From TrEMBL, chains A, B:
InterPro entries: BetI_C, Homeodomain-like_sf, HTH-type_TetR-like_transc_reg, HTH_TetR, Tet_transcr_reg_TetR-rel_C_sf. The keyword DNA-binding applies. Keywords: DNA-binding, Repressor, Transcription, Transcription regulation. PANTHER family: HTH-TYPE TRANSCRIPTIONAL REGULATOR RUTR (PTHR30055), TRANSCRIPTIONAL REGULATORY PROTEIN (PTHR30055:SF241). This is TetR/AcrR family transcriptional regulator. Residues 8-68 form the HTH tetR-type domain. The keyword Transcription applies. It comes from Saccharothrix mutabilis subsp. mutabilis.
Length: 203, 203
DNA sequence: TGTACCCGATACATTGGTGTATCGAGAGTG
DNA sequence: CACTCTCGATACACCAATGTATCGGGTACA
């Protein structure tokens, strides 16, 4: 059964409100009450759509990561091949598309920590991360080939890049006014790409 | 004024209880009440020692990172030079000393997210992280020299390693039964060390 | 051993959140 | 246009936590 028009709109507003509240209060401290107030609903609306904040978060996360990967794919597809010749160019392009999103980082970091302590959730998170890496891999391989690099173990590279992304994002956010942090992030990305690939491709 | 004996013991018990409660409930959801109950005190005890949970956490964190760096230094000092000949050896040694601590990771990740959203705290966290990298740097350089590697930019390396540590820790914890995650972590550490150093040293 | 004062206990007034059971407006449907 | 049933609002009963003001036992120190 497809959600009715009314319901779809309700979900949209709840997602939006939840993101704002999670970002402002922290996932752990956000209450159903706050989310509903922000969305302009009573708690009744919430409970007839979700059983818990966890459930709402997972729905948001699925949506958001889908959109993010789509953006990334689009950014890469739109890039002029002539402008992307080296691994560094590619790294900069991807970084620009993915960015360093303060609010989103905080929310996912907190939720991940929460999931690690909640057995059922841990597996769900593991699955999602796996799916993300899985989607990322082929895109990555094909674009690396364009800049003349062959990847021995694409999965390892994808996971390494995700790890570097997470780790450096914190550093960038902790020192938001320091452009050096941003540069170090790009350097590290580049170093990892070079370490996990060998010359050889279309370039 | 040095803390009296009674007070020192109270602090010890509060630290211990706080770590347990933060780990079990999440930093965001932990209450003063819970911490005190676990420690066997009333809230009166808490408020006459700290103004907030933030304050308590910062005290714990300072203590814990001091101890961690001390352990690391000791582990490196104790290692038989004959057994540590390559960058990989060094990486494995450090990894064994630092480890992947579930509870501690969750607690710090949540606190960091919290600090990012709390202006005053963000700077405190930045300072602490800086101090950690600062302490790490000389140790790192001296041991890399032992295994025959020279470091061009020690600070960049230290920060890169911290980022990789953070990023891969999550991955290891999300898939706790997968030894591959652990191996990928070591591989990434090694790749980064090699990328940020050049041959040349005592070896 | 006396005494000053530290520090943890107690009590109080408040606040804000929880989940469920029930109702009825109005969207969806033929 | 009328019928149906979804879904958000309302109301209920309940609990957990907050921070402060005050008290007094016991530690520390001469």
């Amino acid at each position: 059964m497809p959600p009715t028009r009314r319901r779809a709109e309700t979900l949209r507003r709840l997602h939006e409100a939840a993101l704002a509240v999670f970002a402002a209060e922290g996932f752990g401290r956000a209450s159903v009450e706050q989310v509903c107030e922000r969305a302009g609903f009573t708690r009744g609306a919430f409970y007839s759509n979700f059983a818990s904040l966890d459930e709402l978060f997972l729905a948001m996360w699925a949506e958001r990561s889908r959109a993010l990967l789509e953006d990334l794919r689009a950014a890469l597809a739109a890039a002029d091949t002539a402008d992307v010749r080296t691994a560094r160019d590619l790294v900069e392009l991807v970084d620009a598309a993915v960015g360093v999103d303060d609010a989103w980082y905080r929310v996912t970091a907190e939720f991940t920590a929460h999931a690690l302590r909640t057995p059922g959730l841990r597996e769900v998170v593991a699955q999602r991360e796996d799916a993300i890496a899985g989607t990322l891999t082929p895109v990555l391989v094909s674009f690396l080939r364009r800049v003349g690099r062959a990847v021995a173990d694409p999965r390892a590279l994808a996971l390494a890049l995700v790890a570097v992304h997470d780790g450096t994002t914190v550093q960038c956010l902790v020192e938001p006014d320091d452009p050096a942090a941003r540069r170090r992030r790009l350097d590290l990305f580049e170093a990892v790409v070079l370490a996990y690939t060998t010359p050889g491709g279309d370039a």
